Amino acid sequence: MAKQSSARKQLLSKPIQHIDITKHNVVPVVDAMASMAFTARDLARAAEIYDRMLKDKSCGIILCLAGSLISAGLKKVFVDMVRNNMVDAIVSTGANIVDQDFFEGLGFKHYIADEKYRSGMFDGELRDFHIDRIYDTFIDEDELRLCDDTTQKIADSLEPRAHSSREYIREMGAYLAKKGKNKESIVLAAYENDVPIFCPAFSDCSAGFGLVAHQHARAATGQPVVAIDSVKDFYELTQIKIKNPNTGIFMIGGGVPKNFTQDIVVAAEILGEDAPMHKYAVQVTVADVRDGALSSSTLKEASSWGKVDTAFEQMVFSEATLAVPLIVGYAYHKGSWKGRAGKKFSTIFEGAAQAV
User: Fold this and answer.
1) pLDDT for 34-57, tens place per residue?
2) Considering the entire predicted model, what is its pTM?
3) Is residue 233, in this structure, part of any structural domain at all?
4) Catalytic (active site) residue 343
């Protein structure tokens, strides 16, 4: 048993280090890439479009997150974006926000896996050690269960009704403000800066386990429960589009966050509002356009649906840990955010009716 404990400790000994874009001025590199070809030129144009969003004072910027981004070392990039008014709303997978960011906010970490573990040949051994693998990254399963338990505690503390994921995540931010162990957190920074976070498929993460446990315990005693209403999510995000028609989207990955955010243009029109298409759009993805998947559908294709304007749009076919620090780092060091006030979109919902 002692030998197993020692081996487990060794596997969880090298924490992921989150890249700090504030320390690396990549402007000359990205400017040089603009005179190259292929993905280098695409990336440089994407960086210029994102900087253009920041210069456009009326533009509300929505960040979309899909894929294992926080566990991979990109957390501080997004925290800096929130704290420096470089983003006004976030639409994400639950894994990024709960299993990875909130998890680290509680004081836990992700770890670098040795090269041999990428093969998958040792996953049975990892399972015996209660270690979960995300490609070349490890996470402590026992600590993840504590994260699940915490999301149940938060659910237990809320009024039993249908909440949007934004409402629930704001309570997660309040929890971290009081009891968090690591202040470098997207959830905490968003709470402190009135940046709403939406997770349309919220149950597909640690919060889902916590909410299932909450509803199961309440059902045993016949008590009313907390539930997450994805329609309320959609309605609230659409309200942002209606109240701030000029919008730009910065999408990392695809999936639900991408489609959800593009669709608010159509939803606003259905509600009788003359909402323009997203004026700016950047997407970083490794999905192949030939496979017919949502994650790879191009921004030009989205224009045919009336969702994205084509004047300032750019696809960047690159893995996120390579492209995102360059794009965001470029915009950060260009400094356009310094003259920008955050939209404080969370305040839209203060005092709003509890049910739609």
Assistant:
1) 999 999 999 999 999 999 999 999
2) 0.94
3) yes
4) no
